[in-house]
Amino acid sequence: MPTPATLLHDQPIERRIDALLDLSKQHAEHFCSPGSWLARQRYIAQHPTSIVVMKCMDGRIHIPHATRTPLGIITPFRNLGGIFDLGWPYLGELLTDTVVDAAQAGRATLMLITYHFSRGNQARGCAGFNCDTQAAKAHAYTIAEQAGKLFGHDHQQVYPLVCGFETDSDALIIHGKEGATLDVSDWAGRAAEGLSSQLNSICPDMPHHMQRDLLPLLEGNLAHVSELQGIERELDIEHREWVICIGRGFDFLHLPNTALIIGPYGPDLAVPIGTAATIIDANMRAGRIPDDGFMLLASTPYQHSGVDRARAELKSHFLSEFAEQVIHREHPTLAQKMRRHTAVVHWPTRRLDPLD
Known about the structure:
Number of helices: 12
Strand content: 15-25%
Radius of gyration: 20 Å
Distance between the termini: 36 Å
Shape: globular
């Protein structure tokens, strides 16, 4: 049976955009519902470790979806190839603020630093590293080293953990000490009880409370991977994205393979925007999505009305106009099919407010 994501990809562009905006409204309503609010509070009370994920903008990499973690628990940072430098001013400040806010609330932080690859076909790997998995993995270790310099090498308050994500199976690969790994795909069909001792053996320096709070993600990933075994996933494996998102506040986009999400972190945003446009163009040429248009969505979260919202509006307009200029310059034919939408997100409610 076709999945909702598959059905959405096949619709005319106007219906796809309407469905995506409707999805954002449904997400905000669900996020603000009493049951969801209580579920998040309970989850955080049971698993207080703050979880941050550094990952690629590739639409196949959706950690909450693959680990069956409630939305709103994991804080994502996304960029082309999962390429980051913690020296980038805005990224470093935002990440530090996230860690300090958690520490002041008595919570440690687990940083999942991810790279992705395909076991079935190297060409389905990470475009940001030209499908070179070893280069992507080496960069993840570089980020982990930077995190040690920034937050302490004892890893008691912030633990940087390098994780692979195998896109054919959606399996996580945890990289521990001295090359030891925990590949969730190896556990498919097996009981989850053994994951705890395996995690402890490969990451003996990870505080036990962090191990306890990482386990639900591994158990959720095991259930997800086991359920996908034997299911034909060709359409989900191949790129089918038709949305370019730039900014922050896109956690309503929990449909796999729908959007390429670019965080506003690096000093040169033109590179990931151009790469995203190239992927969209290739999707159209290959017939994986209709060629009648694609969506450019810029968004900035805000906490309070007044100056905070006004700043968010200015930032979203800047990001939208900048991305449009890059796409017109590098992909002039594709640019004619662009449907530009600019918005801000009221972060406490996750409400997407259109600006145009």
